[in-house]
Amino acid sequence: MPELPEVETIRAGAATHVLDRPIAAVEVLRERSVRRQGGGAAEFTARLRGCTLTAAVRRGKFLWFPLRGPDGVAEDAALLVHLGMSGQLRVMEGGSHPHLRVRIRFADGGQFWFIDQRTFGYLWVADLVPTLDGGPGGVGTLEYAPAVSDAGPLAQHNSALEHAALIPAPVAHIAPDLLDPRLAEPGGPQRRELVRRMRRGRRGIKRALLDQTLVSGIGNIYADEALWRSRVHYDRRTDVMPAAKAGAVLQSAREVMVDALAAGGTSFDSLYVHVNGDSGYFSRSLDVYGREGEPCRRCGRPIVREVFMNRSAAFCRNCQRPPRR
DNA sequence: AGGGCAACCTGGGGGC
DNA sequence: TGCCCCCAGGTTGCCC
């Protein structure tokens, strides 16, 4: 289910519930859910046992928890989570679930669950490395910290930046996201550099928005929502688009995600880090996604849906004029 | 180099 | 009721 706002909601919830609780045992109920771990479930469980999670950090749709070892020394590793299409993290006391894939048992008796119906998501104890992505400005190492969100309740805690210079190696190719404080400012230098990179190369705007190496966290829903808000058709080429227009799309993307985050932040309780996918903030107001045939909230024309990049694109043909082919 | 696309999975829902 | 096809919010890796 998750795009950036959902993952950030989960990050914030997890940060208040699973940190500094020693891990007593780990059960991998579906090997595929740790498929990226070289040594499989055996290595995954062995590396977690006795550790504590010291922080909850996010970049785009990736979430990770730096580890402290049984000896109290920080490991150069983190529990990395990607939720894929259907992953959930929940803080539980017990019980079971048909799609429970990994169960982490804390020494205090509590449990931390990874639930994933479609198993596109995964857990991975991955090494932390200095960030090398340079990013806009291209200065290089350490310029970009992982996205310690500016929206979560533990932002201040995290933004001690104890972990900011490190990022899981598998995430190193993922760009910062629009909640990253450096990218949050509409006219800021990082934002302008992002626009420049967006407009490099011949491709449509939606393809650029979904390119996680350009800017991360935007998925199919929020891409469509951002394009509707800024009245841009999904296939408009970025290279011939005015920079201000590309910047406006980015700003819309940030705003729609911030709105969703505001809605999502209110709906989890102490038991569930993530509510059920069909309740709570899932019902946030969307303007185009899933509204095929319903009237555009601006002009009243029906929202249409087309297949693009092997997925659906929802838009208003009147407000978002397609480019001439 | 960069775009296009199948593959990876497990359902749920609609049509017949 | 059963069956079949389409749909689903992501990423990777291979082919061109």
Mean pLDDT: 84
The percent range for helix content is 10-25%
Low-confidence regions: 134-163, 266-272, 275-282
Intertermini distance = 33 Å
The counted number of beta strands is 12
- Proportion in β-strands: 15-25%
Class from helix and strand fractions: alpha+beta
Largest sheet: 6 strands, antiparallel
The 3D shape can be described as elongated
SSE string, helices as H and strands as E: HEHEEEEEEEEHEHHHHHEE
Computed CA radius of gyration, to the nearest angstrom: 20 Å
DSSP helix count? 8
Brief summary:
This protein is α+β, with helices and mostly antiparallel strands.
Keywords:
325 residues; six-stranded antiparallel β-sheet; four-stranded antiparallel β-sheet; 12 strands; alpha+beta; DNA-binding
List the helices and strands and how they pair.
Blueprint: H1 4-17, E1 23-28, H2 40-48, E2 52-53, E3 57-59, E4 62-68, E5 74-82, E6 87-92, E7 100-106, E8 111-116, E9 122-130, H3 155-158, E10 166-168, H4 181-184, H5 189-198, H6 205-210, H7 220-230, H8 243-264, E11 303-308, E12 311-316
Antiparallel strand pairs: 1-7, 2-4, 3-4, 4-5, 5-9, 6-8, 7-8, 9-10, 11-12
Helix pairs in contact: 1-8, 5-8, 7-8
The chain binds a DNA duplex (16 and 16 nucleotides) through residues 1-3, 6, 32, 61, 82-86, 99, 116-121, 201-203, 207, 210, 212, 219-222, 277, 289, 309-312.
